[in-house]
Design a protein that fits this description.
Layout lengths: L11 E5 L2 E11 L4 E6 L2 H19 L1 H9 L4 H12 L3 H16 L12 H41 L5 H14 L4 H4 L2 H4 L2 H47 L3 H4 L2 H18 L11 H12 L1
Antiparallel strand pairs: 1-2, 2-3
Length: about 290
């Protein structure tokens, strides 16, 4: 399949050998092309279809992307930071920036804007062409800020090894934020907050010099919320296997980011949070999830 595909039905019937399959249709990414496939889970079908549309958009905008890749700003510094922090390559971080930019330009994170036929796909591509250049510049700036603040947080964290509990807690937080492929896979609405998360870590490390007792108490207060989330999140990941991105409870994903905001509210209040957060508020949110 190229960008010239037929309108997708809401439910499809497909013959596979002697079997007749019914389910939700999706264009599945097969590397240099896409194939029409059928899934018995609607959320899974949507996740597969989004990746398929991204592949078709990459093919349609191949030349534009080549040009934009050559013009990503500050690639030397970007590459040095990314290689130093992740062990990855400059090519990898450039590819991540282009993928995030393409998803945003095509509005593929919004189901309402996903094309379901050739005409709407071509319209999406034309609109993406007009905004892709500016979006690449914006995403590159955000990624540079993320990597710079991450590097600073790492240095501060390395200096608190004598405070074992805090060192472990912050180390686990950084590891969660920066899992392999995090630039591409973190929702962009959250990625833009990463510099603030890392600034908060640096501030927390600085404050330990005179406030170790207070930090330890706040960590104890927060611990049950973190443990509840980790236990439930881990259980859902193991249940859903390889297709966990489609099967996870959206409220659990949102709670993960509330925990990041809570850390700012507790350890680095001066950085402010977009919404009011407190341990009491998060317990109430958790109760509504656990019901």
């Amino acid at each position: 399949v190229t960008g010239d595909f037929e309108p997708l039905a809401e439910l499809m019937r497909m013959q596979k050998g002697t079997q007749t399959l019914f389910g939700d249709p999706a264009l599945q990414d097969k590397g240099e092309h896409c194939e029409l496939t059928v899934w018995d889970d609607e959320l899974q079908a949507r996740a597969v279809h989004t990746r398929g549309l991204l592949r078709l958009a990459r093919i349609a905008l191949k030349e534009n992307l080549k040009h934009l890749e050559r013009n990503i700003p500050d690639t030397t510094q970007l590459g040095m930071l990314f290689v130093g922090l992740t062990g990855g390559t400059l090519e990898q971080v450039k590819a991540d920036i282009l993928t995030v930019s393409l998803r945003r330009a095509c509005q593929l994170d919004d189901a309402q804007h996903e094309p379901s036929d050739a005409a709407s796909f071509n319209q999406m591509i034309e609109q993406a062409k007009t905004r892709l250049g500016l979006i690449v510049q914006e995403v590159a700036r955000v990624v540079m800020s993320v990597l710079s603040e991450w590097q600073n947080a790492q240095k501060k964290w390395a200096g608190i090894k004598t405070h074992a509990a805090q060192y472990k807690d912050i180390g686990e937080q950084i590891a969660r934020l920066t899992q392999k492929g995090f630039i591409e896979h973190t929702p962009y609405a959250q990625l833009v907050h990463y510099p603030r998360y890392f600034k908060a870590i640096a501030l927390r490390c600085d404050k330990l010099k005179g406030g170790l007792e207070r930090d330890s108490q706040l960590m104890r207060d927060m611990a049950p919320l973190v443990q509840n989330w980790q236990r439930e999140f881990g259980a859902q990941i193991s249940q859903s296997g390889a297709n966990h991105e489609a099967a996870l409870d959206q409220r659990l994903l949102e709670f993960r980011w509330l925990l990041e905001e809570l850390r700012i509210g507790l350890f680095a209040q001066e950085l402010r949070t977009p919404m009011p957060v407190s341990i009491k508020r998060l317990y109430k949110v958790w109760e509504s999830i656990a019901r």
